[in-house]
Give the backbone structure.
Amino acid sequence: MTGPEITREQIDGYAADHTTPETPLLQRVANETRTSMDNAGMMVGPVEGRLLEFLVRLKGARRVLEIGTFTGYSALSMAAALPPDGEIVTCEVDPHTAAMARRHFGASPWRDRIKLRAGPALDTLATLQGPFDFVFIDADKENYRNYYEAALPLLADDGLMAVDNTLWSGRVLDDADDSPATRAMVAFNDFVRDDPRVECVVLTVRDGLTLVRRSTEERAGARPPAEVWASLPIPTDEDPVVRAEEVPVERPTSRH
Ligand SMILES: C[S@@+](CC[C@H](N)C(=O)[O-])C[C@H]1O[C@@H](n2cnc3c(N)ncnc32)[C@H](O)[C@@H]1O
């Protein structure tokens, strides 16, 4: 394919322009975060925020667990998709960002659904009772494996886990990058892909979002062992199943 060189920023901008816009509440959180914080890029932003909202709603989740609140953008995005009796427990270690998030939660229609738990997330996770229908991991990368191990037992049998920043700005491909966060992310991605307890898919949305769900017997049945695949017949045109699916196509008589 030939054509103009398209940058990642341009295509991300196009996606944002063609996604349902964020609410005034989320705009306010995003604006205040941008003007008062150096690291505003930590917010999931409008496209991933809408994706999280979609996933929580599609899952029909009633209980959500978030690890990494920051100023509250993702928690508010997910809270909007919960039923009135739903709840989101969100963990944050930094008292300054936790205070800002609390203020935004309090000024939102979802104030009764959001419970911010201050302190190191691993300590908080040890006190929680499952099951959670949706878990979102978005805190310090060096602890991702620990968060995963602590959150998996809290995940409902048919629950969904989403893990943010798993492409780590592409640094997961840089073997020379020996920063602890990059090596932790590489090890985490390899571990989850090979973990027989789960199945996963890495979405290339924004900085990478990995979706994880439990591997069940039924799901394993959709991916039988190699010998089952090898024993399947190769269909031919004479195969009655192939022939039965041939439906006569009506040709259009005029062009529109
Ligand atoms: C990437 S930001 C979260 C962004 C947020 N999900 C959003 O979209 O606005 C990561 C957050 O995790 C918090 N964090 C880092 N280490 C933590 C820990 N051990 N326990 C709880 N929170 C932690 C940081 O203070 C930071 O606010």
In short: The mean pLDDT is 93. Residues 45-59 form the longest helix (15 residues).
